[in-house]
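ingest -> validate -> predict -> emit
validate: passed (alphabet ok, no gaps, 315 aa)
predict: started
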Amino acid sequence: MRGLRMLASKTSASPAQMAAQVVGATRLWLLLPLAVYAGTSAVELPNKLEHLIELLVVVGLLLQAGLWINRLVSRWLERQIAQRRNREDGEAATALALLGFAARVVVWALIGLLILKHLNFDITALVTGLGIGGIAVALAVQNVLGDLFASVSVMLDKPFVVGDFIVVDDLRGTVEYIGIKTTRIRSLDGELIVFSNTDLLKSRVRNFKRMQERRVAFGVGVTYQTKADTLAHIPQLLREAVERRDKTRFDRAHFKSYGDFALNFEIVYYVLSPDFNVYMDIQQAINLDIYRSFEKEGIEFAYPTQTVYHSAVAR
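emit:
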């Protein structure tokens, strides 16, 4: 163990580091029965005692093998997940995290069955009994199992992965961790929001990380004193304000409706980037262009006003 640690500290080779980490999971007390067995091999022992030592050796070696395999799987998956996160591959990181849990469960289940077999337990009857008992346990922990199956659904369907920015109802944030029972999201304000996987999948989840482009619709209103020819020219001014900007695709601009105090125009365009800051920069520039164009053409923006008409009353 000391030799492998020294070798791992002097080299950047991952096999040496992995070997040092795996050997670090060695528990000497699990190897003690093997030492006793080796020491008593030259001595005549009673059959029962010899059989007991052999059982202890097998159990100890199986447990130690389980620890080595568990450490190997854990460290390998940790490195793979770290590499995927560095590459911003959230989907692979999520899948590997859940795969690691499943692999550890399978390893220890097999180790447990092998130990029971060497202890002369009837594994067939045990598995049958576990099946019946498993139904009762499943009914008792159905909420936990629901979250477990929900996490499997997240892994297979990938509605979101680590690193995605999602909105759930009125809560929004970046996915930091997807576990067996819960998913943790870091909100814009900095607090950590913890969702049950089942409740999360029952909600309407909006994934902004996978947005390819953003549709924007907004309106402006001008006064009723605006001339008809000017009204007909306003859609062209609005179109030019949008098309001057990079990363935009103009859709339409129309005289939409007669309002209570304004003649309303609606503009629709697309921002060819999912980044919210890019959208706000573009919208700000468009608003400034529209203001300058209206100022140059003498077009007045509308705001809530009332006109009161007085008439003389004959007495």
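The chain has a mean pLDDT of 81.
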